Amino acid sequence: MLKNLLDICGSSIAFYFVGYAFAFGGDPEKRSFIGTSNFFLQDLGDDATGIGYAHWLFQFAFAATAATIVAGTLAERCQMNAYLLYSMVLTGFVYPVIVHNIWFQGGFLNAFRSKPLLGVGMIDFAGSGVVHVTGGFTALIATHLLGPRKGRFYDERGKKLKEPKAFPGHSRSLQMLGTFILWFGWYGFNSGSAIKIDADLRPSVISRTVVNTTLAGSASAITALLANVIYNERKTGEPLYKLSAAMNGCLAGLASITGSCGVIEPWAAIVIGAVSGLLYLGTSYILIKRCIDDAVDAIPVHLGGGMWGVIATGLFASPRGLANYFGTESKHVGLFYSWGRNSPDASLLACQLIGLLFILVWISVIMVPFFIVLNYFGIFRSDGLEEVVGLDISYHGWTPDSVAEEVSQEQLTAYYTLKSNRSGGRRSPARDSEEDPDDDGVDRFE
Known about the structure:
Layout: H1 2-24, H2 51-73, H3 80-102, H4 128-146, H5 172-192, H6 202-236, H7 243-257, H8 266-289, H9 298-316, H10 319-326, H11 335-340, H12 347-376, H13 384-389, H14 391-394, H15 400-403, H16 409-422, H17 429-433
Helix pairs in contact: 1-2, 1-3, 2-3, 2-4, 3-12, 4-9, 4-12, 5-6, 5-7, 6-7, 6-8, 7-8, 7-9, 8-9, 9-12
């Protein structure tokens, strides 16, 4: 919960100081790699309509989304200081540069330039690449360098387990509630991104967007659920209708449709969603086989779904959808439609692949050294004992009786001894392990 709060707090400060400027500052008529104006939101408040501040708020929500994707992946083993640091670096510098080059008219990949790349540029309607690939790939780098949770893939002696140990969430009901909340929020993200469309065409684009968003999420959820049922029946002889497969499959479908929701036809949204459901299951399986510990399956959902969404735009973008998007007929359409014209044209698909490569390379160049430095200075991963007893106890002051059902007394004693030694013996292990008689478990502001 604190990490989710820090997402908003850290991201908003970073995006206020420099993030928005790096993303949208500068002259849209001149090509640039990074923004150079509007630091501290200067000049945005001069518009009497308030559109400048409104645009900052809308774009900040995208930036915070990219950061929060990483949070769940690193759950239960990442230090709080490290989390705040990478959240601010991601939203203050890494993410804005990607935004500038894809969504800002002066960026080399922007589709609305006077002379776009390959005559069409990259189309990422609401952020399959800009948001979801950015967050998902950063999460992959971070969790690979951080390592798995203790006991997930290896025993206490470092020997690989025959079967990975499951760490189930504490409430399926809350997970389902979160899925519905995210799905509802997706309508705001996707339809809100039509703000850049010509006002006369905007209603048509928005209606197309919400229909495609609905169909892709639904198709992906059903596909992931049924494919998982078939897999388990073949493996164990018993069908297993796994709720998490349907929920995460739905989110993968939503991530994949984000990039193309305004430029494709509804039938294509179903195809994109169905493929993303299969990709989610496959990517999740590969991560487990490679002993990469993604605590909430955020990498398969956002990286897998996002990458497919970027590519799918180059395959399924329709002439009608692109005409509404650009306000004029486009010469370069999705590859499948160009085949139908008997003139195969992969210009749009090529731009999508170039944009995807740019995102992956840029994140690697910045975030790999960043996480290595954090790890080198010992501020990335939590101490082993702190992780074993639980970060609720070691970081947030909760009592063992309330959270640590599987923690042995021996482990607790070792942790409190370590804590006492670090503090110079100012606080005894026995005192730390007892309930505060004046604490009724309710947080109060005093």
